[in-house]
Design a protein that fits this description.
It is a single chain. By secondary structure, the chain is of the alpha/beta class. The chain has one domain: Purple Acid Phosphatase, chain A, domain 2. The chain contains 8 helices and 13 strands. The strands form 3 sheets. It has a 5-stranded mixed β-sheet, covered by helices on one side. It has a 5-stranded mixed β-sheet with strand order 4-5-9-11-10, with no helix packed on it. Strands 7-6-8 form a 3-stranded antiparallel β-sheet, with no helix packed on it. A hairpin with a 5-residue loop joins strand 6 and strand 7. The protein starts with a strand and ends in an 8-residue tail after the last strand.
Amino acid sequence: MAVFALGDIQGCLSSLQCLLDKLEFDPGRDRLWFVGDLVNRGPQSLETLRFVRGLGNAAITVLGNHDLHMMAISQGLRQQTRRDNLDAVLTAPDRDELFDWMRRQPLLHHDNELNFTMVHAGFSPNWDLRAAQACAAEVEGVLRSENYQQFIEQMYGDEPDRWSDDVHGVERWRYIVNCFTRLRFCDADGRLSLREKGAPEQHQELIPWFRVPGRRSQDLRIIFGHWSTLGRYHADNVYCLDSGCVWGAEMTALRLDSPQPEWTMVPCPLACDIE
């Protein structure tokens, strides 16, 4: 059995299928880990959701910010922007089944045997694995509850920007979601800085979350996506798999069950009109 982690798909199913062909993926034998953002921007979000859901136990996916954004739109809690490409999902006859499946996906996945942890974006500098798992489970429980819309309606915002055990309820859940689905940079004190999207060298006054001094998850091998301007990256005990497929660059897979993780890429020639 081979285990492959894959970077952000964002509705680029054709590129995903090319990559799986190159990997000689067999759903009866192999397993796929998706770092989130299955949907939006690309042309095949509906088909991507159906494909990944159809893989059943052969696939694990964590939630990304675009996946949560789609859920908010589906509940009438956010409006689509001109950059969104979700109409096919929102009008599909099986939309409710797909949305229900999506909101039941985790924010974090950890495999003791493979010694890898997967999230969409990042970790709070204050979290070790146990704390991160507890935080993920807390919000997953909210999203899977009957009242999940009440949280999604209040999910958006950049505050609080620093972890505290004294923060509870929606503010606490917002911080957790921001770490797992939006985080790229922190300041020198470990406060989240969520607006910057460029490469590290473009924001020298800030620190990538995985380089914050004293980060409590330094012993973990963490897989993430979300950061196309960082691109395919391995250092600091982390692996970034978002190599910008939806921007016309590449789609990346990382084989996790090999003695040394192995990269595989395919070009993504179709750059979507998402300016």
